[in-house]
Amino acid sequence: MKTCLKQALVTTVLIMLGTAPAWSADNSIIVQSTTSTANSGLYDYLLPMVRKDTGITINVVAVGTGQAIKNAQNCDGDVLLVHAKSAEQKFVGEGYGVARHDVMYNDFVFVGPPADPAGIAGGKSALAALKRIAGNKSKFMSRADNSGTHKKEMALWKQAATDPTQGSGSWYLETGSGMGATLNAAVGSGAYTMTDRATWISFKNKQDYRIQVEGDDLLFNQYGIIMVNPDKCSQVRRDAAQAFIDWVLSKKGQAAIAAYQLDGLQLFFPNAN
Amino acid sequence: MQDFSAAFGLAFSLIIGADADLIEIIALSLRVSISAVLLSGLIGFPLGALIAVTRFPGRQVAAVLLNALMGLPPVVVGLLVYMAISRAGPLGWMNLLYSPAAMIIAQTILVTPIIAALTRQVVEDMHKEYDEQFRSLCIAPHRVIAALIWDSRYSLLTVTLAGFGRAIAEVGAVIIVGGNIDHLTRVMTTAIALETSKGDLALALALGIILLILALSVNAAVYGLRSSARRLAYA
Amino acid sequence: MPASLLLPLEVDDLCYRIGPDLLLDKVSVAIENTGISVIMGPNGAGKSLFLRLIHGLLEPSAGEIRWAGRSLGPDTRRRQALVFQKPVLMRRSVAANIDFVLKPQGGRYRQRRDEVLHEAGLYRLRNQAARLLSGGEQQRLALARALATNPDVLLLDEPCASIDSAATLRIENLLRQTRERGVKIILVTHDTGQARRLADDMLFMHNGRLLEHGPAAEFFAAPSSEQARAFLDGKIVI
CB A12 to CB B38 under 8 A? Predict the structure, then answer.
């Protein structure tokens, strides 16, 4: 019976030892990024190329932009790739990041049920659509999770001079969840919502939902890349992080981003300087 | 709904096809949860037994506290562990965040109260039966605890199973401290959460079915072990 | 017959009460090293209570207990063994139940275990689960485990209360062998026949009091108390 205990102990220790932390391999870095880039399959497409060209393993943590920035402020990542330009500039301005570079863009779209109770379908103005939704008190699902998409949505409401939180819980529904969960909730309850185009194209539970508003310049969605500041976070793998950023901004990396398609549609448009 | 039948078909073909990614995810799920449960046993059995047999002021409080901790929300545990092992946290120098080790730590914290609280109940019952005999034989306290744990081993197997069920099924803690990184920290539950967020409900449900089959087979194995023990009157 | 180092047992004015109930009322007695002392009496006389008190499992409400002049403690208890009415066997094999008490002594405990099992006639059952034995075998195992500790004093609480006569005979034979080795035995029973067969020294208890104490031959020939006389005649004594 004692040997049983010893075996259990030894097994446990072996299993624990077998679990090398993410940082142990010299050539691996952590990228704090957003669900839109991860869920669309972009990383699954890009990362094998990065590895082949640079020998670096990229570990992606996909969370909302707000949480990604918070995690990076805690030094829990080497590179930040998100989509909330002003928050990114603030991050760099406060010394958490080294420098911010534009990587690519796509756009946000409004999706909704075919019944279209607010009558927004076919419109070109995001602000007009929001006003109609609020005026009609049609159900609208908001991320409400401080993500890049949520920040953009809030900025649009402000420009539309409408405060949706008045209707919180009645027609304005704040999920506090990721894009996927919010889309599932919207589709399940017949609500409108705003999503980035990449997530929408790769989303598999669309049912009868369609894009109803798109093409407004206000719906522009810019992604940026930032190296976490090694002066603040000593564990940051400066060389590997820089190599990854260089690759993404390179002609080859930009071409690869442009080449990524889903269902024959381009998801991201490279625009590095 | 069409998703249901699609999910069963998909689960079946994933299993038959022995999909390499799926096997990796299942293996990591088992490795993390089994390690966590073994560690929880190493802590929880003696701790539960100690509270069961020793008389000290605050013993009732300890028992109530343990029972309450059984309901610890995984997200809270994940958050606490994240704050501790984040590079900005007090244990940041250990570089544990986003590793299977971090997931094992979080699940151990989640499961240990369950194992300790249930162990206390099992051992307390047996202690009532053995107490006079042990006192008559002047058995040293550490031997009393060891003997009670060993003699309730088959009941403790069920206790361990309760802990395993909690560990293998939780998503809140591992997704925060593991980060759901592909080929590194992705386990069954975080993969299910991911597929759900991608709107691929059939695949998510298929993974759920496989998780259920996994849990079923572990439970069946333990049930078999226990009933053979009962035939031998060891349980 | 080597004299037991723990004797005599001296008990002075021993009382035990739970709430308002006085379960043991000023029991005073001196038990010498004279083979088997049998404590007899009807149910509720306080026999088992007395046994637990002199073994140190319970705290007396009043009075004093001394073994060879020493007061109770782990030292005295360690040199005694108590066999309970309902054997408390561990959820292990027969052999492992003996090993449990032998292991702390270290050394060649396996050899000693086999001796003990042979003596109790349990050797061929050594690999069986202890809790699957018959009632008589379980009680013999409990006795074997008690003897494995080499006690100076062996205490038994109604060891044959729930087993058949063949099993009782085997236990009684074991007790006689043990007496021959010089171990002091104190046996609680309400079975007159068993008392007649085994006792060298008799104590008769009734309602928490010790009514008689003396050599067995004298007690059985002429009990001095009315209650003992009635009990021996097979009358119901309350």
Answer: yes
Q: Which residue of A has its CA nearest to B193?
A: A181
Looking at residue B53, its amino acid is V
The per-residue pLDDT for range A187-203, each reduced to its tens digit, is 999 999 999 999 999 99
Residues 117-146 in B contacting C (C-alpha not used; CB under 8 Å):
129-130, 132-133, 135-138, 140, 143
pLDDT at C5 over 90: no
- Chain B residues within an 8 Å CB radius of C84: 132-133
Mark which residues 26-65 of A lie under 8 Å from B by CB. 30, 35, 39, 43-44, 59-62
Task: Identify the residue among B122, B126, B132, B137 best suited for mutation to test binding to C, counting C beta carbons within 10 A and taking the highest.
Answer: B137
C159 CB near a chain B CB, below 8 Å? no
Residue B15 lies in a domain: no
Q: Kindly report the average pLDDT of chain C as a whole number.
A: 93
Is residue B1 one of the residues assigned to a domain? no
Contacts of B87 in chain A (CB under 8 A): 74-76, 233, 235
- Give the pLDDT confidence score for residue C6 in this predicted structure: 87
Q: Does A205 touch chain B (CB under 8 A)?
A: yes
**Interface contact C118, partner B, CB < 8 A:** no
Domains of chain A: residue spans and CATH: 3-105+223-270 (3.40.190.10), 107-219 (3.40.190.10)
**Span B126-160, pLDDT tens digits:** 999 999 999 999 999 999 999 999 999 999 999 99
Separation of alpha carbons A131 and A143, rounded Å: 18
Considering only the beta carbons, identify the residue of B133, B137, B151 that sits closest to C91: B151
**pLDDT given for residue A18 in this prediction:** 55
What is the pTM (predicted TM-score) of this model? 0.87
C123 pLDDT band, cuts 50/70/90, is very high
ipTM value of the model?
0.92
Does B201 contact A178 at a Cβ distance shorter than 8 Å?
no
Residues B167-211 have pLDDT tens digits of 999 999 999 999 999 999 999 999 999 999 988 888 899 999 999
Q: What is the CATH number of the domain that holds B77?
A: 1.10.3720.10
Tally the domains of chain B: 1
Within-domain flag for B4: no
Residues C57-85: pLDDT tens digits? 999 999 999 999 999 988 899 999 999 99
In a domain, B168, yes or no: yes
DSSP for chain C, written as a single string: -PPPTTPPEEEEEEEEEETTEEEEEEEEEEE-S-SEEEEE--TTSSHHHHHHHHHTSS--SEEEEEETTEEPSHHHHHTEEEE-SS----SSBHHHHHHHHHGGG-SSHHHHHHHHHHHTT-GGGTTSBGGGS-HHHHHHHHHHHHHHT--SEEEEESTTTTS-HHHHHHHHHHHHHHHHTT-EEEEEE--HHHHHHH-SEEEEEETTEEEEEEEHHHHHH---SHHHHHHHTT----
Domain containing residue B140: 21-230
The pLDDT value recorded for residue B16 is 85
Could you say which residues of chain A have pLDDT below 70? 1-26
- Transcribe chain B into DSSP letters: -HHHHHHHHHHHHHHHHT-HHHHHHHHHHHHHHHHHHHHHHHHHHHHHHHHHH---TTHHHHHHHHHHHTT--HHHHHHHHHHHHSTTSTTGGG--TTSHHHHHHHHHHHHHHHHHHHHHHHHHHHHHHHHHHHHHTT--HHHHHHHHHHHTHHHHHHHHHHHHHHHHH--HHHHHHHTT-TTTT--HHHHHHHHHHTT-HHHHHHHHHHHHHHHHHHHHHHHHHHHHHHHTT--
**Is C82 an 8 Å CB contact of chain B?**
yes
